Amino acid sequence: MSSGIRFDKVTVAYGKNVVLDSLDLTVEPGEVMALLGPSGSGKTTALRAVAGFVQPVSGRVLIGERDITALPPYRRGIGMVVQQYALFPHLRVEDNVAFGLKAQKVSKAEIPGRVAEALEMTGMASYAARYPRELSGGQQQRVAIARALAIRPNVLLLDEPLSALDAQLRSGMLAELARLHRELPEVSILYVTHDQVEALTLADRIAVMDKARLQDCGTPQDLYRRPRTEFTASFVGNANLLPVQVGSGSVTLRSTVLKVNTEGVAPGASATLCVRPHLVGLGEDGPNALRGTLVEVQWRGSTHRLYVDIAGHRVKADVRELRETPALGEDVTLHFAPEDAVLLGARVGETEVLAGALDG
Ligand code: ADP
How far does the centroid of ligand 1 lie from the alpha carbon of residue 217, in Å? Predict the structure, then answer.
């Protein structure tokens, strides 16, 4: 049976230090949810609250309809994989994988079949008799995943499972995890990572965390195309964030008027205009022309990243086909389409004036 995970206003504190602040989040049955955020933002704490290794000071954790907040970890039926594999060094691979089954009191007769099934699933069947020290890092992580899957969990918790692996192995394991999820579509997965590529690749939805709080939650495409906060815009993908004054159907960056969608934002507000670098083009095209000076060019294989100083802001443009690279110091024009820009964090002018008065 498939069941989701629900955080119902979960708060965790160490002494007076609140490290998870009233988290409300639902992982749907069979969904992969990434918890993405910088180090110290509370991601692991949220995961450990589901596993039962930290006790919330308030709020509830539910698996399906069941409130598990007070259950001990071993009774939650959850599979968990952490960064450092945490295999028992003195046990062979098969005994490592059998460990959780014994703890769950699965019948002796059933254990070998379940171990073989889990090792098969992770491509480790021929390594059953080895010790962890006889395996590479990637293989050890596969065994850790097999161990978590052997108990046939409804919920799988993954805490930075790839961060101890080198870049090439990481991308291979990412594909493996995606395949495993296709084979086990009923398992709900909570995946903690600080790596946006992992989150964008694997997750059905991403919950963005910062400073103990949930900042944003949506599909990778939503968060990328329509971030709600500057934090999300810069943490999920790369972003140009420009301070602008809002007009009607347009905004002003210093003296440059730019046509964008201002729906829902009162004229006169200060806001941040977010445009992704790959949506900024070189040359004049359409209604939005940003004139400035080219200050840096980086070649990135399939694109050139241009840095252009526009009214004191370093605007990034990722240009695919650059016939002639303009010289550094040259005046250039950049453009973007009105529909490719998003307005963030609009504040009404008066609030700003008031804040300014209080500051000074
Ligand atoms: P993340 O996984 O996003 O890196 P964590 O959830 O591990 O963040 O940690 C959130 C905050 O909680 C950090 O500031 C961390 O120092 C603090 N913290 C985590 N575990 C403990 C603990 N056992 N005692 C005190 N503070 C802790």
Answer: 21
Tens of pLDDT, residues 268-298: 999 999 999 999 999 999 999 999 999 999 9
Amino acid identity of residue 167, one-letter, is A
Nearest Cα residue to atom 13 of ligand 1: 40
Mean pLDDT of the chain: 91
Instruction: Please report, for the chain, the start and end positions of each structural domain, with discontinuous segments joined by +.
Output: 5-225, 238-359
- Cα of 51 to ligand 1 centre, how many Å? 15
One-letter amino acid for residue 201 of the chain: T
The pocket around ligand 1, CB under 6 angstroms, is made up of 14, 19, 37, 39-45
CATH topology of domain 238-359: OB fold (Dihydrolipoamide Acetyltransferase, E2P) (2.40.50)
pLDDT for 24:
98
CATH superfamily for domain 5-225? P-loop containing nucleotide triphosphate hydrolases (3.40.50.300)
Same fold yes or no, 5-225 and 238-359: no
Per DSSP, which regions of the chain are E strands? 5-14, 17-27, 32-36, 58-63, 66-67, 78-81, 155-159, 188-193, 205-210, 213-218, 240-246, 250-253, 256-259, 270-275, 281-282, 289-299, 304-310, 313-319, 331-335, 341-347
Q: What is the Å distance from ligand 1's center to 159 Cα?
A: 13
Among protein residues, the one with the nearest Cα to ligand 1's atom 6 is 42
Give the model confidence (pLDDT) of 223-246 as tens digits.
999 899 999 998 998 999 999 999
Q: Whose CA is nearest to atom 14 of ligand 1?
A: 40
Cα of 193 vs centre of ligand 1, distance in Å, is 14
Q: Which residue has the tokens 């964090």?
A: 345
For residue 13, the one-letter residue type is: A
